[in-house]
């Protein structure tokens, strides 16, 4: 592993970039980090991801891998190690992939509308965001009853796909003008949040809620003019 | 394999459902088929996919698997057989996953706007659709130079992800009011289309271009009122 060249091109608040951080850090893989400016992307990023021109990109021994869940899958194949993220059992693996992808399809989609939309569409985004978290609470109770993670006692592919949204919860509530239900209503979700936040490998790259919130508020203002 | 109960819930023109057909048929897996009406979904579908309430769903020995690329991945794990869809090499696997996902992110997205949008947004959708096909032509030339498929001499995960769009090309052009460049401009793409269309396992479930086109025109009319 010591001879590998591993580099992550990223923009710090990105939940997609955090997925890659989490996967690498859970595996204990050493890597270089390059912070990108989204308004002035590096030549390296544009050449490494010519299709989407987006972060994150992992460059492993000169080869670029793009799209966060594809990257996490790649990391799990190259460095299986002692912390395998994808279950061996095909059905359990499909369940883990389904919930990681749910982060893209529902949490990110609703979150993006919380930042960009106004009026009824903005209100609907808040409802959709809360619905998505309720479904995650229910799923945790069904898939891993009594356990903290989708992966049971340790984070798996679903956890890595969804955990990066945790540091955005405060910002989404702030720009959405709503307050999420508490642990009484969503016990599995809050147990999961506490478990994720107590994993040392996760702490390494997770920005503070306040720093993310400031960034989210700034971004909403820049795209909508709304305070 | 003979003791397995395998059932596909689907709606015939769906490119997502066709992915599942293609994966099962390439593997030679026997399965039951249940056609769904999108305006009157079966109780079985709603219970099997409570999160998205969408086709396709594969029900294997009573367990539902949802989301087309998750299903194709599952099929490849359960029935690896002689036709493996995902490459063993982690980088080649990541490339295959990237291009299958490109079908969702770019082809389907642009195609959906070709059906639903009007005016400038509709025109932009046509440009985006052509851009996506151009990128597929380029990718084929880079990933599998001189070979017919993303998978080289046989279809892989990327081919299964993208091939279902082929029978939609005519319909997209019809409702988009544009004509795609020909084989002189996109030699790799057209070589790939011919290769896909000549695979016996693909012919089993692929509806005719004309039947899909009729469905696409009907759908655009129903959502926009446009002829």
Automatic annotation (TrEMBL), chains A, B:
<dbReference type="InterPro" id="IPR004045">
    <property type="entry name" value="Glutathione_S-Trfase_N"/>
</dbReference>
<dbReference type="InterPro" id="IPR045074">
    <property type="entry name" value="GST_C_Tau"/>
</dbReference>
<dbReference type="InterPro" id="IPR045073">
    <property type="entry name" value="Omega/Tau-like"/>
</dbReference>
<feature type="domain" description="GST N-terminal">
    <location>
        <begin position="4"/>
        <end position="83"/>
    </location>
</feature>
<dbReference type="Pfam" id="PF13410">
    <property type="entry name" value="GST_C_2"/>
</dbReference>
<dbReference type="InterPro" id="IPR036282">
    <property type="entry name" value="Glutathione-S-Trfase_C_sf"/>
</dbReference>
<dbReference type="GO" id="GO:0004364">
    <property type="term" value="F:glutathione transferase activity"/>
</dbReference>
<protein>
    <recommendedName>
        <fullName>glutathione transferase</fullName>
        <ecNumber>2.5.1.18</ecNumber>
    </recommendedName>
</protein>
<dbReference type="InterPro" id="IPR040079">
    <property type="entry name" value="Glutathione_S-Trfase"/>
</dbReference>
<dbReference type="InterPro" id="IPR036249">
    <property type="entry name" value="Thioredoxin-like_sf"/>
</dbReference>
<dbReference type="GO" id="GO:0006749">
    <property type="term" value="P:glutathione metabolic process"/>
</dbReference>
<dbReference type="InterPro" id="IPR010987">
    <property type="entry name" value="Glutathione-S-Trfase_C-like"/>
</dbReference>
<keyword id="KW-0808">Transferase</keyword>
<dbReference type="GO" id="GO:0005737">
    <property type="term" value="C:cytoplasm"/>
</dbReference>
<feature type="domain" description="GST C-terminal">
    <location>
        <begin position="89"/>
        <end position="222"/>
    </location>
</feature>
<dbReference type="Pfam" id="PF02798">
    <property type="entry name" value="GST_N"/>
</dbReference>
């Amino acid at each position: 592993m010591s001879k590998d060249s591993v580099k992550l091109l990223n923009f710090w608040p990105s939940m997609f970039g955090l997925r890659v951080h989490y996967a690498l850090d859970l595996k204990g893989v050493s890597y270089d980090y390059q912070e990108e400016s989204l308004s002035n992307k590096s030549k390296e990023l544009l050449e490494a991801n010519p299709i989407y021109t987006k972060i994150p990109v992992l460059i492993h021994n000169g080869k670029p891998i793009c799209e966060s869940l594809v990257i996490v899958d790649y990391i799990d194949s190259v460095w299986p190690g002692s912390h395998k993220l994808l279950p061996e059992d095909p059905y359990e693996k499909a369940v883990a992939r389904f919930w990681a992808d749910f982060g893209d399809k529902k949490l990110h989609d609703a979150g993006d509308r919380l930042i960009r939309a106004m009026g009824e569409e903005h209100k609907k985004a808040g409802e959709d965001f809360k619905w998505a978290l309720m479904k995650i609470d229910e799923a945790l109770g069904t898939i891993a009853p009594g356990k903290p993670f989708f992966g049971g006692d340790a984070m798996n592919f679903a956890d890595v796909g969804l955990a990066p949204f945790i540091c955005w919860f405060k910002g989404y509530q702030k720009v959405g003008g709503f307050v999420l239900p508490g642990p009484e209503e969503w016990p599995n979700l809050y147990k999961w949040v506490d478990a994720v936040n107590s994993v040392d490998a996760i702490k390494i790259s997770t920005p503070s809620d306040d720093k993310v919130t400031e960034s989210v508020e700034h971004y909403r203002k820049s795209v909508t003019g709304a305070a």
